[in-house]
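Researcher: Quick one. two chains, 759 residues in total.
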Amino acid sequence: MASTSSAATLPARAGTEDVPRRRGVLARYWPQYVAIAPFYVLFLVFGLFPVAYSFYLSLTEWDGASEITFVGLAQYQYLLGDARFWNAVGNTLIIWVGSTVPMLFFALLIAFLLHQNIRFKGAYRIAFFLPNVTSMVAMAIVFGSVFSDSFGLANGLLRGLGLPEVGWLTEGWSIKLTLILMVIWRWTGYNAIIYLAGLQAIPTELYDAAKVDGASTWRQFVSITVPMLRPVILFTVITSTIGGLSLFTEPQVLLANAGGNENSGGPGEAGMTIVLYQYNQAFTQFDFGYASAIAWALFVLASVFAIINWRLVRDREGLVDRRRRRGGEAR
Amino acid sequence: MHPLSRRRLLGLGAAAGAAAAAGGLSACTGRTALSTDPDELVLWLWNRSASPQLLAEAAENIPGTTKRLRADYIGTTFDTKLRTSLAAQSYIPDLTYINSNNALYFPSEDQFLDLAELGADAHEQDFYPWKWSLCRTPTGVLRFYPLDIGPTGFFYRRDIFADAGLPSEPEEVSAATRTWDEWLELGAKLRRDADVALVQTTTVLFDIFLDSSAERFFDAQDRPLFDRPGSAVRQAWDLAVRALEMGVVANAASTTDQNAGWVSGRTAGHLEGAWWTQVVKETAPDTAGEWRIATQPGPPGNSGGSFVAIPRTCKDPEAAFALIEWMQSPENQVRTYNDVQLFPSTPASFETGQMDPQSDFFGGQDPLEFFSTAAQTVPTTFISTHESKTGAFDTELALVANGAKEPEAGWEAAVAEVNRVLEKRGVI
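Model:
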């Protein structure tokens, strides 16, 4: 509605340029501002206000019910020396790297295969996307059954092969591995679909030309698919960074009853992530001041990775430009 | 002319929207009650915490008043939702159930009415005294009222005990395990002869010991007791560690493993409150008739059991309290038990003869008789609001159980971490 209206008024404006500008803008466009207002009002109430308020809270001590006491930077000071927080940071980074790299590789591979001329394409696409829309509670039950120590399928398989059993949900590194597997299982299909969309935008002439030149499928993948998909790959890397740093649902549901305390990521807090620790402090310990400080620490951390990402992208673009230029000179 | 009329149309729509938004916002401010109907009281509760029949009757009319009840089932994160309402002072229910963690509300106790002022003291004699004591805040004010209780006992598999040549009838088992040492010895024998565990985790023993102890983590003035030599917490820790070393614990951390353990008989027992009868029936229906309940070593304890409270914004405290009196009377606690198996907190309920003991699962042993007897000797204790900050004991105990840490190192790490948290939160 708003867009059609502005399109209709724009030509009229060109003819009445002599009307005083400042007054004219408001008088003319207030309906458009009103039309976009719902988003901004919602953003103010549910976006900007909580962000600002959480910063205020991070400077206070508050249990969610009693009086709010201002404590300055004490929460941040405690955070710097809090071994549990740094453990959560370490866990988050390990799980993020451990899941993102294989996940994006498999997603690309799956997308490439789905893009071939094969039968039942639709069925495969749905099958790969299904994990992403599966209820997390159901997933937690299934994963809990597969990875439970003495009666789980995973350990049953290891026993059958004569291998030692693994404490999938009870030991430090195994907990991280289980979480990595869960993230990969849940998000690979999602990324594959994004890659598939990117693949479909690559002109088929390139592949035809490559085939004529006798390039193998692998060569086509490496020399055409990957370079042409670069923007899409960068998009998935960035979304995976955001998702990986704010990992919460998987450890929360999977380790909810795997020993130790509620919302603490299992024994030894081996599956504790930054956001889970924040949730734990806010809604299990009712320490809202500290939970807000953790949120802001995560913001700083995410900013650092965003800058690294941005630098990498920029440098890579520069590199490609140089390479192109060099190629041109050679010719 | 055309764009102008369209603009006017847009403007009219926007004005209408703004008016509606303003109306909605003004409705938000200053509204503390959930229901604007003056004759309707709202109760917050969770699944299986009240008899649906009693709620249906109260929805028509709360006996002795002119009011009606609206029962709102609040799903997960009950405390977060209730605390949000209380913090915002808006959309607060007129009555609310509160789980066994009522100590969480001690720091903001003035959010709830003093029930003694409504005449609750007259009912003190009706309830188990230790439960009544849990209804008082540290300042001595009665702000909670008893719902159910969870007296504890030692559940075990008669058939597995008999096969292993151990005492197997409840009286024999109770007599053979009067102390924790005897109980551990029996568990070690069971492990040796049948390769079966007695309990699932070290946490079970740590918790059940403290649940049956008069001393817990803090004294009534919230001063820490756990780090004193020979404290109850230290004894609970040592019991858990010894059980681990003697092979009495299955170390089944996940619920999947625990359920499988009880179903398969790899774990032949559990120490838990009366409500576990219902859990084991649903978990391991095929083992029906083989379970028995013996008294645990030392006095019985209490695990779980909830409360009801009246927020101070309640629109009609007298009617709200009339509802509580009616629902928690010995007769109606019997009905609640028969409907949703909540264990009554009034000794008189067991004398009505109206309760179905469902003793088939326990081979004819009457669990009601067992637990109502146990409930008479539960020690009176004080649960501090700061117990929620002692989670490090569970964390470290899980690490010790995994073999990731030596017991003494685990204990020291737990005490240090809890002290660090208490210091941060300004408790010590």
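Chain A has two domains: 2-57, 78-330.
Researcher: Thanks, that's what I needed.
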